[in-house]
Design brief:
single chain; 142 residues; alpha+beta; Thiol Ester Dehydrase, Chain A; six-stranded antiparallel β-sheet; 18% helix; 43% strand
Length: 142
Amino acid sequence: MDESIHKLIPHREPFLFVDQIIEQGDDWILASKKIEAENAFFKGHFPGKPIMPGVLICEAIFQTGALLMRAISDAPENFIPIVTRINNVKLKRAVRPGDVLQMHAQLTDRAGSAWYLKGKASVAGKTVLTLDFSAMLVEDAE
């Protein structure tokens, strides 16, 4: 686990879906998550034929985008990233135990407090899921 992830976003196990930041540019980030067979969601999705739920692949991309937002934003540390819109989700392949999921998030625009991003997840160089999403950094109420 890359400890810098804990410094940038509030997500923690069992709902943290990023293990490592692989590379980052000015407006993009590439991260990864090893998908372990022991993940609780595989017990019910699906017994004997485990497949990572698509919504959790989306969440892995959202968390990757959140890492980018925190890394390039000058917002105070008590501001947390919140997804506000999801569009054009296309699920293309299954993700199974043992796979290494790579997530890419690209900032496409910013307007006021809104961040617009494109995301892609892949396994072994093959696209698993693509989507567009928007997010904001909002002050944590605590």
